[in-house]
Structures are given as C-alpha cells and as structure tokens.
Amino acid sequence: MVSTEQHINQLLFPILEQVSDPEIPVLSIMEMGVVRSAIIENDIVKVQITPTYSGCPAMDVIGDDIKKVLSENGYNSEVELILAPAWTTDWITPKGRKALEEYGIAAPLDAEADKSVLLDGKRLVKCTNCNSKNTRLISQFGSTACKAQFQCDDCQEPFDYFKCLK
Amino acid sequence: MNNNLYKYILGIADNSLILGQRLGELCGHGPSLETDIACTNISLDLFGQVRSYYQYAAKVIGDGRTEDDIAMLRKEREYVNVLLVEQPNTDFAYTIGRQFLFDVYHYLLLNKLQNSHDLTLSAIAKKSIKEVSYHQRFSTDWVKRLGDGTEVSHQKMQEAIDGLWTYTDELFHQTEADKIMVSEGVGVDVTSLKEQYYAIVSKILEDATLKTPESKWFQKGGKQGIHTEHLGYLLSDLQYMQRAYPNMEW
After folding, report:
1. Domain carrying residue B49
2. Which residues in chain B have Cβ-Cβ distances shorter than 8 Å to A145?
3. Among all residues of chain B, which has the CA nearest to that of A86?
4. Does residue B197 surpass a pLDDT of 50?
5. Tell me, what CATH number does B27's domain have?
6. Is A163 in Cβ contact with B45 (below 8 Å)?
7. Options 3.40.50.1010, 3.40.1280.10, 3.40.50.720, 3.30.300.130; which CATH number does A7-91 get?
8. Residues with Cβ < 8 Å from B138, sequence gap 6 or more?
C-alpha cells in the first residue's frame, strides 16, 4: 500500500534539510517534498526520494548529496528512488513556496488557475519582482521541465513560474 | 523471466525513446528559443519515463542486461516503436503534428495503464501522465495556432497531418504479447482507445480549421520491427558513442 504520508525520523530532519535542490539552491529537499521517508534500521539510514519530473537530472545529484551529508554525520545510508505516490507541487511546504518566490520563481497556483493561465492567457501569476498580476505567458516550458516562462507587463521583468503538478 | 511482460514494456517504452531522440535533435535548432526549449523539455520527460521502463524491463528479463544496453545496443529490427514516432523533423508543422498525434494516444494509454495490475507499470503511468498532459496541451495549442494562423501555416499544418495520418492506425494494433498482457490485467487493450482517439483528434483539427484526412490506407510494421528508412539514421546517431567506444561512460 502506498502512502502519501512522509515518514521522517526527526533526528535526521536537520541533517537532510542541509541538502538543497541543485537547480534551485535556496530550496532544501525537505521543503521541496522529495524526501518521502527517512528511517534508521540496524544503524543504516534508509532514505526514499521521489523525482519531481521523470527526467529530472537533479535526482542523481540529490541522492549523492544525501549520502554525503549523512556520512559526514556518521551514518551509513541507502537511498532509494520511488515513483509512487507521484510527486505533486502540493508537497512543497509553505516555507518552500516563500523561498521560491524570494528566489524569483512564482510558486504554483491551484490546478484550475494553472490551467487558465497556461491555456487561456489569464493574468493570475504574481510577478516575483513587483507583485503585479499584469503578467503573461511567454512559453509553456521554461529553463527546467517544472517551470514555465512568464513576463511582467508592468515592470517588464521576465521570470519563471513553477507549474502546478497534481 | 517473463518474456511477454518484457516485450510489452518495450512496446510502450521504445515509442518514448525514439520520439525523445527526435525531439532532442531540435536542441539548438528549434524555430524559436521557446519552442526549442519546449521540445527539448518534452524530450527530457520522455527520456525520464523511458529510464523507468527500461530499468524495469532489465529487472524482468534478468539476464544481466542493463537499461543502457536495452536503449543503446539493440539492432534496428529489435526496436518495436510505432512508425509515427520515428518520422523526421521535416519542418515545424511535422514536428508538432507528430507530437500531437502521439500525445493524444499517449495520454489515453497512460490513463488506462494507471489501473494496471502490475504495480511498477501503474506507478510509472501515474507519474508520466502528469507530464504528458502538459505535452498534449503544448502540441494541441500549436496545431490550433498553425492551423488557424496564416495561409501558409494552415497549409503546412494540413500537409503535415495528411502526411502523418497513415501512421496513426498502427497505434491501435495489438501484438501477441500485448494480448497476453491484456488478458492478465497488466496491459491496456489499445483497440478500445481507437474510437475516442479519432474523436478527440478530429475535434481539435476542426477547432484548428483543419480537415480530418479521409484516407483509410494505413502503414504498419513498427511493432514487428519493420521500420521506415528513417529509424536507421536515427539509431546511428543515438548509438554512435556506444558502438564506437563500447562500454564508455560519461
């Protein structure tokens, strides 16, 4: 049975929090919601991570970084990549969403709003530079698979929008 | 070892590998920066999905072959992708037409594959369908833009749909392995998707002011390993490094 609950040993939380997403360095993998479980079994830390997108090239790096930081803290570890349940942008924590915005990436809207901005040209995404909603879609695909490209028509700043994945 | 399951996985995965490679050819060559990035992002999604399928296929076959061996070291006749996905990037209308005709099918397939009794295939389908819904939006959007665009874009989009139409029927052919996997609750009965597929495609073509081709003559063979001449060239690109420098790694 798959579960959407995370099982994280609280001892490991502060250690794993030091690992960041290599594409978005301000965001830790915990805030991103890619760590689905972290338990200690027979002195070995077992971590399960799930990719944001199937082809996400960051997963190998994240796996290596997890092993490295755990070993620095005296743990042997095994990292397993799991696909179910599939990652959703709902798993990005409120702290993570704030970090994204401060970094210049607009956080995902809900599924309905996401559809209307990407398909019908609705102006709902807030500019990360000036907070105006007078923004428009430039490209459905942005600098990485998880983002779309937007531009603000008030301050003219181009920025990324993190697409809703549900 | 379950040979039918292995064949079934390849039947799905090879489509994504070959289409991913075709889209990857556009890296740095797209008609504009945005479409270039979009096509290569879609390519990346497909390669990501393919890795999951081939990793599973390697486990199922269990003879020491790895995901890379399956991707890189088969001969042309051993690839079982449909003819549609190996068609070249003739022009942007063809690239979009090919993508559109595949995306609509891909989405319907994954939608059913989510309910597979095989938990790994079901998990890959649940993951992939989220990505494919974005692919379908992108290609649909462009079919409408080009179809309902200028006189020239309309003409080119219509030519692309007309030219690619002959490859659509094959999507709904079943191999022997497919039939066995369907009977075991693992595979998707693709014949059941056909009606819905053509209904969706026709509706979008109509919205795009394009004509749904009436031709009833269809090409087939990809699922049996009998390909158009284009696949050989694609594979020589794809496999070059592994053939020239066996076992090389990045």
Report:
1. 3-244
2. 41, 44-45, 131
3. B127
4. yes
5. 1.20.1260.10
6. no
7. 3.30.300.130
8. A140, A141, B38, B42, B99
Query: What string of H, E and C letters represents the secondary structure of chain A?
Result: CCCCCCEECCCCHHHHCCCEECCEEEEEHHHHCCEEEEEEECCEEEEEECCCCCCCCHHHHHHHHHHHHHHHCCCEEEEEECCCCCCCHHHCCHHHHHHHHHHCEECCCCHHHHHHHHHCCCCCCCCCCCCCCCEEEEECCCCCCCEEEEEECCCCCEEEEECCCC
Q: What total of structural domains would you count in chain B?
A: 1
State pTM to two decimals: 0.93
Are B167 and B231 contacting, i.e. CB atoms less than 8 angstroms apart? no
Report pLDDT for A55: 85
Residue of A36, A139, A141, A143 to mutate for B, most B C-beta atoms under 10 A:
A141
Is the Cβ–Cβ distance between A60 and A30 less than 8 Å? Answer: no
In a domain, B250, yes or no: no
- Complex-level ipTM: 0.85
pLDDT at A4 over 80: no
Q: What is the pLDDT of residues B85-130, one digit of tens each?
A: 999 999 999 999 999 999 999 999 999 999 999 999 999 999 999 9
Q: Is residue B249 part of a domain?
A: no
Considering all CA atoms of chain B, what is the largest pairwise distance in Å, rounded to the nearest integer? 55
Peptide bond between residue A25 and the one before it cis (omega within 30 degrees of 0)? no
